[in-house]
Write a structure and sequence with these properties.
The complex is a heterodimer of chains A (80) and B (497).
Chain A: E1 2-9, E2 16-21, H1 26-36, E3 47-51, E4 54-55, H2 62-65, E5 72-77
Parallel strand pairs in A: 1-5
Antiparallel strand pairs in A: 1-2, 3-4, 3-5
Chain B: H1 4-12, H2 23-26, H3 29-32, H4 53-74, H5 77-80, H6 85-97, H7 99-115, H8 119-144, H9 155-158, H10 165-180, H11 183-213, H12 216-232, H13 236-246, H14 248-277, H15 287-305, H16 314-333, H17 348-357, H18 362-379, E1 414-418, E2 421-425, H19 428-436, H20 438-441, H21 447-452, H22 460-467
Antiparallel strand pairs in B: 1-2
Helix pairs in contact in B: 4-12, 6-14, 7-8, 7-10, 7-11, 8-12, 11-12, 11-13, 11-14, 11-15, 13-14, 14-16, 16-18
Classes of the chains: A alpha+beta (80), B mainly alpha (497).
């Protein structure tokens, strides 16, 4: 099932709607948001994903971490 | 024979005691507003203009003749064609947001002309309604001739009739403020906050820039409108003063709510124009400096004189003054096909100026422009899509504007769960306004929720064409098509999608 999320990439100027599958990993959220914002912020190889202030494990899936539709996630690219 | 000052109040103070119905039936609280006070508490209501109808008609006739004379002298398409393209795009933005909002203000004034609590107030509101009718007509008249030259000017009339995202946000504001507010809230929101405070940015600040740019028509138009606004804005302070006297907490709430809502609107419309769409050589002050002069100084002095405080979110507002319109402008630049005017990309000189004017925030904004410049260098001029985003953006459930609050480092969006529905807000003040009157706002859907509900197309091109009512000749582009001298020396590998 598709889960629309409000994604905020550090360094970007606007929140974006990211569509992920319940089976997508948290790592995939970071990748998709960086790709969606690439016109304004250059993507970096790795990124951490936060939900309600907590760091999410990159290997867990969207379903496993319990992300619901229209929740806010924050993506912070790792410094190279 | 009576002197003017002796007979004037005979004509404008026409309240009497009712014998067949009660005062509450004639002025019911849901329509007249709260706190509901008997007329004896309003009978000293007054304002400084004290205009008679004969004087009003005579003055307005002269003003209209003056606007018409300027239009005949400098209002032809060929006169506008000599103006800087960036300025013209600021004009398209203003022209679209102005006339039908003014028409909504006719309704708000007419409600006050019937349900305002003192007859002098009702007389002024009647003039206000006539003023706003004029303010609807003037931009429609002036921009009409330009449509044949440039179809984007058609949005002067079309804008509020579309579901363009900016129109949804503008309607959300003006429907509440102008169409549905009772006369007390209207007086505080429109006459006091909007007209006493913020419109000075347009009518003084932007008018002076228009003069420097050489746009005599715009200068004349806003000056002519301003003289009306200055008069009917005077309804605000005596109403607010009375509310402070009887319900200070409510007065402060109305001030805090409408200051924030109005700020967001002006930040986009005027902020874009002053800091990005006015040619650099003609800029005298930054948007922030205009705000500091007209809002932080003059307006706050008035608030203090009325016995009220600065809004509770003042620190957040000051931070937004450094960031918000920059965040929205650069974001909107990368979604420019979703609006009806073209964008100017700030070059090295403009960015230097912005850094000087916004030392607290520019370090975080500039890398985004640098990234866009890199993309233009890679694509070369004319490849519009390579510097635009394709992913849906997100909108605030209160102001309906994009989620661009805070800074690139820390976006201030806040979420809320209410029943089975999720809400998101661009900022703490928007969340606060929503939570104060949730039933007023909860049913409204922003663009994202319309897409998710199947009410609007999910496909971006379909959304632009069928929902935002934009065609390719109208939708926004980079004003120079990316052909800037400062980008020309760069290598241009072919971009891949």
């Amino acid at each position: 099932m598709l889960v629309p999320l409000y994604g905020f990439l550090r360094g970007d100027t606007i929140g974006l709607l990211v569509l992920v599958h319940e089976t997508d990993t948290v790592r995939e959220i970071g990748r998709k948001l960086q790709e969606a914002a690439a016109v304004r912020v250059a993507p970096k190889p790795g990124a951490e994903v936060y939900f309600r202030g907590s760091l999410l494990s990159p290997d867990l899936t969207v379903g496993e971490v319990g992300l619901q539709a229209l929740e806010r996630v924050d993506v912070i690219p790792k410094e190279e | 024979m009576l002197k003017r000052e002796q007979w004037l109040d005979l004509a404008r103070k026409l309240d009497w005691e009712y014998s067949y119905v009660s005062e509450k039936e004639i002025f019911p609280e849901p329509v007249s507003g709260r706190p509901w006070l008997p007329h004896k508490d309003w009978k000293d209501w007054d304002e400084p203009y004290r205009t008679s109808y004969a004087e009003y008609v005579s003055t307005q006739h002269a003003k209209d003749a003056s606007v018409r004379a300027v239009q005949e002298a400098v209002g032809r398409p060929e006169d506008f064609q000599t103006l800087d393209p960036a300025w013209l795009n600021g004009l398209k933005l203003h022209a679209a947001t102005l006339p039908l909002a003014e028409f909504a203000a006719v309704i708000g004034n007419l409600r006050a002309a019937r349900f305002g609590r003192d007859s002098a107030w009702r007389t002024m509101a009647t003039f206000g309604a006539l003023d706003e009718t004029r303010h609807t007509h003037i931009p429609l008249l002036l921009m009409h001739d330009l449509v044949r030259w440039n179809p984007q000017f058609d949005w002067t009339h079309k804008f509020f009739h579309t579901n363009n995202w900016v129109a949804i946000a503008a309607r959300h504001l003006v429907d509440e403020m102008l169409l549905t507010s009772n006369p007390i809230e209207f007086a505080v929101a429109t006459n006091f906050v909007f007209e006493t405070g913020f419109t000075n940015l347009q009518f003084v600040g932007l008018s002076s820039l228009a003069r420097r740019v050489g746009d005599r028509m715009f200068e004349k138009m806003v000056q002519s409108i301003q003289t009306d606004e200055a008069r009917h804005a005077q309804i605000g302070p005596p109403v607010l003063r009375k509310i402070v006297e009887h319900d200070r907490e409510y007065a402060q709430y109305l001030l805090d709510k409408w200051f924030w809502r109005t700020w967001l609107f002006f930040s986009v419309v005027t902020g874009f124009s002053m800091d990005y769409l006015t040619p650099l050589r003609h800029r005298t002050q930054s948007f922030k400096e205009f705000m500091e002069e007209w809002i932080l100084d003059q307006f706050l002095r008035t608030v203090d004189e009325l016995g009220l405080h600065k809004p509770w979110y003042w620190d957040r507002f000051l931070s937004a003054l450094d960031n918000y319109h920059h965040m929205v402008y650069v974001s909107a630049y990368t979604y420019r096909a979703t609006v009806w005017f073209d964008f100017a990309m700030p070059g090295p000189e403009e960015r230097r100026w912005l850094r000087e004017k916004y030392p607290k925030s520019w370090d975080q904004i500039d890398p985004v422009w640098e990234r866009i410049a890199e993309r233009w260098k890679r694509s070369g001029p004319g490849v519009e899509w390579y510097t635009q985003g394709g992913t849906p953006v997100t909108f605030c459930d209160l102001c309906q504007l994009v989620l661009c609050g805070g800074t690139p480092r820390e976006n201030t969006a806040r979420t809320l769960r209410r029943g089975d529905r999720s809400y998101i807000f661009c900022s703490e003040p928007c969340l606060w306004i929503f939570e104060k009157e949730p039933d007023r706002y909860a049913g409204h859907k922003d663009v994202v929720k319309r897409i998710l509900a199947g009410d609007a197309p999910a496909n971006l091109v379909e959304l632009l064409r069928k929902y935002f009512m934009l065609t390719q000749d109208m939708w926004g582009k980079d004003m120079a098509g990316g052909k800037y001298p400062w980008l020309e020396d760069a290598p241009r590998p072919v971009p891949t999608p």
